[in-house]
Amino acid sequence: MQAPEHGTLTRPTPFTREPLRFLNEEGLPEGDRDPREVTGLSDAQLVDLYRAMVLSRKVDQMGWILVRQGRAGFYISIQGQEGAQVASLLALEPQDWVMPYYRTPPALHVRGATLVELFGQILGTNADPSKGRQMPAHFGSRKHRIFVLGSPVALGHVVAMGAAKALKYSRENAVVISYGGEGSTSEPHFHSAMNFAGVYRLPLIVFIFNNQYAISVPRAQQTASETLAEKARAYGFEGYYVDGSDPLAVYWVTRFVAERARTNHTPALIEALTYRLDPHSSADDDLKYRPREEVEAWKQRESLARMRRYLEHLGLWNEEKEQALHAEYDRAIEEAVEQAEQAGPPDLEEMFHEVYHTTPWYLQEEAREARRFAEEQEGSHA
Amino acid sequence: MQAPEHGTLTRPTPFTREPLRFLNEEGLPEGDRDPREVTGLSDAQLVDLYRAMVLSRKVDQMGWILVRQGRAGFYISIQGQEGAQVASLLALEPQDWVMPYYRTPPALHVRGATLVELFGQILGTNADPSKGRQMPAHFGSRKHRIFVLGSPVALGHVVAMGAAKALKYSRENAVVISYGGEGSTSEPHFHSAMNFAGVYRLPLIVFIFNNQYAISVPRAQQTASETLAEKARAYGFEGYYVDGSDPLAVYWVTRFVAERARTNHTPALIEALTYRLDPHSSADDDLKYRPREEVEAWKQRESLARMRRYLEHLGLWNEEKEQALHAEYDRAIEEAVEQAEQAGPPDLEEMFHEVYHTTPWYLQEEAREARRFAEEQEGSHA
Amino acid sequence: MPEMTLVQALRDALAVEMARDDRVVVFGEDVGRRGGVFTVTEGLQERFGEERVYDTPLDENGILGMAAGMALMGLRPVAEIQFVDFLWPGFDVVISDIAKERFRSGGQYGVPLVIRSPYGGGVKGGLYHSQSPEAIFAHIPGLKVVIPATPSEAKGLLISAIRDEDPVVFLEPKKIYFGIKEEVPEGEYTIPLGQARVVQEGSDVTIVSYGALLHEVLRANETLKQEGISAEILDLRTILPFDGPTLLESVAKTGRIVIVVEAPRILSVASELAAFVAERAVDYLDGPIVRVTGWDTPFPYALEPHYLPNVRRIVHGVRRALGLVP
Amino acid sequence: MPEMTLVQALRDALAVEMARDDRVVVFGEDVGRRGGVFTVTEGLQERFGEERVYDTPLDENGILGMAAGMALMGLRPVAEIQFVDFLWPGFDVVISDIAKERFRSGGQYGVPLVIRSPYGGGVKGGLYHSQSPEAIFAHIPGLKVVIPATPSEAKGLLISAIRDEDPVVFLEPKKIYFGIKEEVPEGEYTIPLGQARVVQEGSDVTIVSYGALLHEVLRANETLKQEGISAEILDLRTILPFDGPTLLESVAKTGRIVIVVEAPRILSVASELAAFVAERAVDYLDGPIVRVTGWDTPFPYALEPHYLPNVRRIVHGVRRALGLVP
Ligand SMILES: Cc1ncc(C[n+]2csc(CCOP(=O)(O)OP(=O)(O)O)c2C)c(N)n1
Ligand SMILES: Cc1ncc(C[n+]2csc(CCOP(=O)(O)OP(=O)(O)O)c2C)c(N)n1
Ligand SMILES: [Mg+2]
Ligand SMILES: [Mg+2]
User: CA angle, corner A357, sides to D241 and D112, nearest 5?
Assistant: First the structure.
């Protein structure tokens, strides 16, 4: 995305009690500021932003389908967070680095990851840049400056902190953004990452999706702090509380703190208030812990609807364009899934590669042993 | 110590930028409040407080002597923190629980631990309630409601949090106080303890000695937060910043938060600004990282001098009393050291006891083996 | 006796102990309202209230610290770690505090608590929902480590673990949480810790296993029987302190031993048992001590079917122990 | 060649690598101004500046996370953990991230870093300044684990560890930090990882050890010599991946093996080596595989002299392996 000039953004207010936002729940601008002016986003960029959100939603829907069809073993959804996820990614520069969390992948096309790669990861085939080594929802790609996340919640934060230290050491004008849910702020890794980022003034943005639940545990039982953004005080830097269903507000805040971090290494914490529209994962049953009505109410306020409404309000979008976009993406996604699947499963030997840079003697032995058993097995099936 | 009525204390101000205090650096009351009125401490109690501080200092001095004489293997000092340590312990009730840190032990006579027990721990003899199982500076005693600390910094905080949960569960009107240095706030355990204490509203007081160094690392490199007390905000409760060389201010704040916690389970963080007058431990050389003048300057402002000056100001103390007190404590300490040493080292079998409640078969075997080797060894020496 | 899955048997054990002893408190991520992501604690919060069954913030270090502190004060906490792969942020509490509390205090304090956690592969969980780290815990003096292999075993062992005076890491084979049903004794039912179970007597070879893999061993046994091989099958049950005497007795009889575990081979529990036998029973041994284990790699996702020991590999291991193959 | 203590040799290795490669960065608690509590990093901050040698907050999790992230970006961090007993708050970073980074990313990323840390007993350090947890790391695929036994070995192995593409846990025997001097090659000097060192050839028994205890083995060897026992002494050096072939070769020659380590016996590295030999070389074995180890207890304070393997216990172990005592 073409960036506005560096350092041109007005400064958002940190530590507010109410989330920063431009768009109200109907997607109409509120207050006296024109979000286009504050964010520097052109009309074309606004449309791009929306398109990327729609694509993320559609990738996500296909993820669910693949699980239902038994072609993927597991899935975890971005729905409800597309606006904040896409906008914050778009607010970055190509030289920046991204530490995703498990809800991030469906939006990573924003960083240039292809749909084939994304579905390769979900399907665990050779189309996955990580060779099918992890469960779905663990996409990473070095060439797109996306780290490979692990499953432990919040672990990425502390590693991202180290990556930010490296950027500063190497005098690269780039930031690291580390994503997580509000639950991740309870883990020790959050504390370590924040404290080191404050002490060393690192170009690190910790971006928290406060989607109000960590699986079944509500936000109020996660921490007693008034806001999550507030926690940044304990580490000597600023926290921003933003409406995560307003992509423009998220873009503004992220872009501002990223520019600042690139210039003078100021870390920042962002709390984006969102809501998870789906169950926690394909293995969850959310009716056990939250009322259907609550979910339905949030479906009315979520980012896609708001953003579309705003574009329509500006005269930049209509039903026809929406239809065309869906048709385009449906085709692209279908093709990508097919290609990803055709890449096929990894070779047996892949189990023993890249444990180390150079495979030691016993792993070579084990690889031969595994091969022998696999062949016997096939033999006996024949 | 005879307690003033519960709930009678005026509330200290949380989150101040300057440390709360009654006594200035010369030990004279400043401001318009009479510390005796605010704290509820009688003249006799003030003298008791001072006596306990002197005893702690003298126990500490003997600790250093024992190391120099090669009778103890290691020592770590309380000097510079006696005022805050003793006052905060005196502010508790017998039913409360104490999680010490390694600078706390010389003051634990305040909880009723005998000098023989304290020196038994330093010498690693049978006079140690923990049977000489740990290095010096690790005193604990169940009958005095003192937990047994381990060496890992901050680990006590998170365990103390669990103990506070148990107190609340069992509806006991008691608090747990957990001590640590400012370095301990960087560890994950601090974060976990604080967050759980906030979420469950636990009767936990985390008491931080900000003595401005963690071994060689200065406070400013430990964390970028403005004060340490500030960190409590991130967990939804209050932090108090107090002058740790003013025992009266420490008493007031500790007593207030302890009473409150016993009544309505409100956790609190206390930061006591102090200075470590000695090297980090008997294995440290502090001249490598801090100027002699800085240390000397702090020796002028420390708690013993201030408190004595205050008592003299009130006409409660004089040189004669001071001399008599020293003579009394010198004798008591000498006797205690002798008795502690005479208790003798633990039996060889003690190595295998209390690994488990009931010693499993292989440890019984190992105990026999160890005994055999020990006897051979003695045989060969004979 | 009612038939139960492993999950039901665990739930039953918790309910029995909670009803009997109000020092027993259950907590962890999602164990309250949600009843646990594997439903082990389902219904317990309704029955025993929010003070005795409750959700925690997302922080294993806090969970384990809370357990340690509660046990120190005389309660009997049963803490759930959602997957044992996620225990490590709280490992310091386990290794530095819980395991050493009784010893370092000269017996003044103890921490009778249970850390319950699902472990092991077989659920397509990839690197972080499949691991078997029991060997790490079993290297730590002061801990007990228990792994049940069937529903009734799970109940009896869990109740014993809760009543034990020492801290117990109780690892549950999630692969067989729901797949196996068996009759489980009602009410209070205990199985002593520290004793292996002789699942089947035999004379040609001793096979030791535990957890989910025990069932793979039993399947392999069908093949062995057909080949005329008489296996003595031991379920280790308690990994630490393990039942050395029963193991030695069996090897003295059979002269051959195969140890089957899921974890990577190097420094696995199979290694310890092998070393133990090689030190004590070398005179009885008529063949190599064979370890059938996971490979020495992180746990794979796409290739999981090739990772876990299966019937073929177990049978091959037995043949090696018997000198039938090189 | 200059004579150096182990500490001096380590410092020299760091200086050589820092001068050669500005991707090498050194950090940890008190390593900067203070030069490390054992003085290993003394003078490095003056020489290389505060950007390359710096102090950290008191948080091992932060230290290890920082190391992981920096390595991910192509630097070569050397992180000091002040005592390995204090590593555990950051263990999740080691086991869940560092060890698995290369594998989980399909080789897209690697984390070439070194975690330096003093380990082991012999300094009256009690429970938390004495432990030998190498077995825990050596059970984790993806890590390398290295322990030097002399000053020149320390230098050569540390330089190799820094240059290695994989993460290395480098444990330093603090007991002999200052007590042993030896000539150490100047400048760049490397010893390949993964290879054991034959310290002395022999024919009657193989003794394997590493770290500080190797010197106790050498002292025991004096007694053995007097008794006419010819020991082949191996310094394992790299604990993971360990040098199985050299081990087997030696046992094939001697037919007896004693393994000497400080850690508690159960699931110690001695157990792994014993299991390995029992699996592969049982035909060569003429006696039990003997482990001489620390006891299976937490590390004691007052009773430390009775805890660590000493000459008497090692000699006894050799006699057992040779069948001279039961
Ligand atoms: C260390 C760790 N503990 C537990 C889990 C299991 N787990 C996966 S996601 C999750 C909830 C995360 O909640 P939050 O951080 O709020 O993110 P959200 O899923 O709501 O986006 C839990 C408990 C895990 N993956 N890692
Ligand atoms: C987890 C852990 N890391 C490192 C150490 C080594 N160590 C002991 S005390 C100390 C400094 C503690 O500083 P602080 O918390 O400020 O307390 P102070 O000694 O200043 O009273 C360090 C690094 C330790 N004991 N535990
Ligand atoms: Mg959430
Ligand atoms: Mg300090």
Answer: 90
In CATH, what number does A35-346 get? 3.40.50.970
Sort out which chain D residues have CB atoms less than 8 A from A157's CB and list them.
65
Residue C300's Cα: distance from chain center in Å? 21
Give the pLDDT confidence of D268-292 residue by residue, as tens digits.
Answer: 999 999 999 999 998 899 999 999 9
Distance from CA of B321 to the nearest CA of D (A): 39
End-to-end CA distance of chain A: 55
Phi, psi of A241 (to 5 degrees): -110, 120
Q: How far apart are CA A150 and CA B334, in angstroms?
A: 59
- Among candidate residues C277, C245, D313, C248, the one with its CA nearest the CA of residue B369: D313
Q: How far is the C-alpha of B247 from the C-alpha of D73, rounded, in Å?
A: 50
CB B223 within 8 Å of CB B285 = no
Sheet strands (E) in B191-320: 204-210, 213-214, 217-218, 238-243, 268-273
Eight-class DSSP state of A9: S
Structure tokens at D295: 């006891």
pLDDT at B200 over 90: yes
Per DSSP, the three-state class of A323 is helix
C93 DSSP 8-state letter: I
Quote the minimal CA–CA distance from C53 to chain D in Å: 27
For chain D, list the domains and their CATH numbers.
3-183 (3.40.50.970), 197-321 (3.40.50.920)
Alpha helix (H) ranges present in A206-318?
A: 247-264, 292-301, 303-314
Catalytic residue among A280, A301, A306, A308, which?
A: A280
Torsion of CA D24, D29, D30, D36, to 10 degrees: -70
Q: Can you state the angle between helices A82-90 and A303-314, rounded to 10 degrees?
A: 60
Q: Extract the residue ranges of chain A whose pLDDT is less than 50.
A: 1-5, 382
> What token pair was written down for B128?
């140690």
User: Which residue in the set D37, D58, D316 is minimally distant from B222, CB to CB?
Assistant: D58
Residue of C nearest to A355 (CA): C297
Q: What is the pLDDT of residues C54-91, one digit of tens each?
A: 999 999 999 999 999 999 999 999 999 999 999 999 99
CA distance A214 to D164: 39
Across-strand partners of D235?
D197, D209
Closest ligand 1 atom to residue A151 Cα is: 25
Question: What is the C-alpha to C-alpha distance for residues B352 and B362, in angstroms, rounded to an integer?
Answer: 10
Residues of C in contact with A215 (CB under 8 A): 29-30, 34, 37
The full set of domain ranges for chain B reads 35-346, 348-382
